[in-house]
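Quick start: what a row looks like.
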Amino acid sequence: MNARTAGPVLVVGTGLLGASVGLALRAEGVDVLLADVSPTALDLAVDYGAGRLPAPGDEPALVVVAVPPDQIPETVARVLAHHPGALVTDVGSVKQQPLEALRALGADDSRYLGSHPLAGRERGGAISARADLFLARPWVLTPHERTTPAQVRVLEDLVLDLGATPVRLSPEEHDASVAVISHVPQLIASLMAARLVDAPSAAVGIAGQGLRDVTRIAASSPELWVQILGANADAVVPVLEAVGSDLAGLVEALRGQHRPGARRAVAEVLAAGNAGVSRLPGKHGQDARFASLVVLIDDRPGQLAALLTEIGEVGVNLEDLRLEHSPGAQIGIVEVAVLPEVRDRLERELTERGWRIAG
């Protein structure tokens, strides 16, 4: 073990993110101290190996605050006062509002450097924590005007020890970015999923992977998201207004689809979506577009493993994979993404080996 981060590191808040930070640092041999307002949560995180209870004389040089969003400013201020030699960061998903609230409390923000790991799981708590939660995930650092280069290096070392990729943005840039890539998508997913509440059972019964993709994040905690959206409302509202304007235009075009230009307006909405999707980084951060092949497999143990093994034997590198089931049938639908130049060869090889190709 060759950790860049010097211990002990104090983690305040032992939920999913805090406990995962502790597990990852301990795996690197770093001494981790844990604190939480809930004795039960704290004991559970200790039992899972995320760290130890502080002992007299322990004085961390680095503190990671991993508490709910509405508790961040007060918690950071308290930690700064209790540990006057420590650099303090937090892992909240909004950065500008907590910084302003911290300053309003009169805290010493010269030792505060906010950060945000773009990682998580559907379930929370130490029981769901993982040492590899941050592996290869972006972790945004948001230095402000009182941040020093040495402090940035300390936090970058922490991020690298956790297996994540450090990214630097200002607090304002960060909040504008997550509004587009996280906060508004959460709201749109929730709005779409809400349409299912009164949808006929027949409609829900034939739902496929497309609907599941759109609504997956709608299962997130309302209590947590009310806090996040309230803290980032200034960045979220303009994006929502733009989406609302686009949606109103689309409704008008469909309502009057036989008017001149209406079909073009619909086509341009769809084409703009294509252009946006093409900007999303794919494997290894590349903007490459892949070709897909849909394979039908029997819904029984070992079939997916056998398919993946044979794709490897053919010598084709799998770029992505999506699995769903056919409603009312004992069939699995596997969509594999590969480089366009090998797609036809893979289809030919799998067909010769007895696999059923859809389409």
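That is the whole record. The chain has a mean pLDDT of 92. Residues 22 and 96 are 26 Å apart (CA to CA).
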